[in-house]
Structure formats: structure tokens, C-alpha cells
Specification:
- With 335 residues, the chain is of the alpha+beta class.
- Helices cover 45% and strands 20% of the residues.
- The protein has 10 helices and 11 strands.
- A 6-stranded antiparallel sheet has the order 1-2-11-10-7-8.
- Strand 3 and strand 4 form a beta hairpin.
- The longest helix is centred in the N-terminal third of the chain and has 46 residues.
- It starts with a helix and ends with a strand.
Length: 335
């Protein structure tokens, strides 16, 4: 009697639709869950159509054949999806390892400075891009590198890796900042020579190289990079570094060699450096991001607070539309 009430003619007509049910666990579940769903569907369809047979044996065979074939396809699809997800996880873990070899996680601490900030490649599925940074504690003080390789995303990684390797080695070896910059120039030139042989485009690198030692003044060599901002005692002002030099890789085009500029960087003060992904970010109306105005509001915050405020505020300003790699570093001079 209960079966008569539960399995009526409408139930029989709707039963073939159950063959679509395994598609849901195949899309989001495991292979075992998909197999269980397929088995349950076959058992239910068999039971219902045995109790209330279809008008012909041919119709019964068609329904069961479709249920079995679609069930097998769902299981195979689930296995393929899980295998692809595992491959993607392996690729992502490789990208994480590559990023850690290229760019150390922030914050970075030396005996002279604390470096915090944000690093957001423009390609959302990539963990590495064309912006680079590094801080090295050397016998001559802390050397800092902020750079932006021409181009975006993965194609710029080769030049970025060459720059970082050269900086880490030369920062320990070269006693002067100009010699360090010359070593970086040579690294970019060598990379471009190799790129030309392999058919890759040559690239230049805009960079800002700083030297922080026991003196209250800090050395800087600007190679076409946006100037940093100095946050001190609640005030914000761009650091005057004179005319920016040519980017690394283009020294042969410069009329004169690069020179060192000195500027005061007192204990407890904060230096803010960023890529053009920050300064050139636009709103939906086309307005550039008002960086200096925002820094005035955050001048009293810690490095991690400034970095956090920048990420959220920049996203609001650009309505979440990121068009370039974004790197912003906040350097606090140790007291």
C-alpha cells in the first residue's frame, strides 16, 4: 500500500531524470561519492521500473543504458577533475617555491631597518611578476633594492631573477653604491645578450638602490624609478633625488655616469617606495591614485598598518581593477 502511494505514475515519469544526479558530486565531490551516487541512482531506477514497468522492454533498456553510460562518464569526469586540481596545486606549490627563491616574504628585518609592504602581481593566478625588492645586511650597511622590470607577469621573470642574483652577490662585495649599481647594470646587459640569442625581447629595469649605514644620512642611486616618500613626525614629503638616471640596461645611452645622492633618514623615520602600479592606478573616472594625500593620513602608523591601509584603499579607488604589478615597501629606520 505504501509503495502504491509512493510510486505513482508521475514518479515513474520523473524517475529517468535521476540519471542527471551524479553530475553534482562529479563536479564538486570525490570519486567515491560519485560512484555512490551512480550506484544509488541505478538501484532506485531499477526498483521503481521493476515495480511499475514502462510500456515496453525497449524503453526500460534505454533508460538503464543511459543511466549506466552517464554514470560512467560522471565517474571519469570526476577523476579527471581531481587529477587536474592536483596538478594545479603542484604547479602552484612550484610557483610558491620560485617566489621564495626570488622574493623573500615580508617583513624583512636587518640591524638597520624593518621592511614591510605588499606585493601583488597583475596576473591573479601568478605569484611572481616583474616587480622586485630585496634588503641585504652587508659589511657596508643595509643595501635596499626596489625595482620594476619592463613588462608584466611571467615574461619579466628572467630579468628579475638576474637582477636579484646580482644584487645579493654585489651588495656583499662592493664597498660603494656606485660599484653595486655598475654590477647590476652588467647583469641586465648580460641577460639581454642571452635573451637576444634565444629570441626573447631585451628588457630594461627601473630601480632605486639605497644604502643605510650608521650615518643619519642615506645614500641613493635612482635608475629611473619613482622617488620614495619620507614619513617623519607626521609629515610626508617626496625625497629629492635630482634628475633620475636612466634605467638599468641603458647606461650606454646616458650622457654621464650615475651618481649617489644623500638624504636624511633619521632613526624612527619611515621611507615609502612603490612601483608605478600604485602611482598610475586609476579610478573608473580616470583619476590617478592620490598617494601623497593618503600617506599623510597614515604617516603615524606602523609599516604593516601603512601597507594594509594601502591595499584596501587602492582596491576601492580602482574598483578592484588591477592593471599592473603592485609593489609598495615601507621601510622603518631602526631607532
Amino acid at each position: 500500500m505504501l509503495l502504491e502511494l509512493a510510486i505513482d505514475d508521475q514518479t515513474v515519469r520523473l524517475t529517468p531524470l535521476l540519471i542527471l544526479l551524479p553530475a553534482f558530486p562529479a563536479a564538486v565531490g570525490t570519486v567515491r561519492q560519485t560512484v555512490c551516487a551512480v550506484s544509488w541512482v541505478l538501484i532506485v531506477i531499477t526498483g521503481v521500473l521493476t515495480y511499475r514497468p514502462l510500456p515496453s522492454w525497449y524503453d526500460y533498456m534505454i533508460v538503464m543504458l543511459l543511466a549506466a553510460v552517464l554514470g560512467v562518464l560522471c565517474v571519469l569526469t570526476c577523476r579527471r577533475r581531481i587529477r587536474r586540481e592536483m596538478d594545479l596545486r603542484r604547479v602552484r606549490s612550484t610557483a610558491v617555491a620560485l617566489q621564495r627563491q626570488m622574493l623573500r616574504p615580508l617583513p624583512i628585518l636587518t640591524d638597520r631597518v624593518i621592511v614591510d609592504g605588499v606585493y601583488l602581481p597583475v596576473e591573479a593566478d601568478r605569484l611572481v611578476g616583474g616587480d622586485i625588492y630585496e634588503a641585504v645586511a652587508s659589511p657596508y650597511g643595509t643595501r635596499l633594492l626596489f625595482g620594476d622590470v619592463q613588462g608584466k607577469g611571467l615574461p619579466a621573470i628572467g630579468a628579475a631573477f638576474a637582477m636579484l642574483g646580482a644584487f645579493r652577490e654585489a651588495a656583499q662585495r662592493e664597498p660603494t653604491l656606485t660599484a653595486l649599481v655598475d654590477a647590476l647594470e652588467s647583469a641586465v646587459v648580460r641577460h639581454n645578450a642571452f635573451a637576444q640569442q634565444t629570441g626573447e625581447p631585451e628588457r630594461f629595469v627601473t630601480a632605486l638602490i639605497l644604502g643605510v649605514d650608521a650615518s643619519t644620512d642615506t645614500q641613493a642611486v635612482n635608475c629611473g624609478h619613482p622617488p620614495p616618500y619620507l614619513l617623519e613626525a607626521g609629515t610626508v614629503a617626496p625625497v629629492l633625488l635630482g634628475d633620475p638616471g636612466v634605467p638599468l640596461g641603458l647606461a650606454d645611452l646616458a650622457p654621464k655616469p650615475r651618481t649617489v645622492v644623500w638624504f636624511p633618514f633619521l632613526p624612527g623615520a619611515t621611507l615609502f617606495a612603490c612601483s608605478d602600479g600604485v602611482t598610475e592606478a586609476r579610478s573608473i573616472t580616470g583619476a590617478f591614485y592620490p598617494l601623497e594625500e593618503r600617506l599623510r593620513a597614515w604617516a603615524g602608523g606602523s609599516p604593516w598598518e601603512v601597507a594594509g591601509n594601502l591595499v584596501s584603499d587602492l582596491s576601492r579607488h580602482s574598483a578592484g581593477q588591477q592593471r599592473d604589478d603592485i609593489t609598495a615597501l615601507v621601510v622603518r629606520r631602526a631607532a
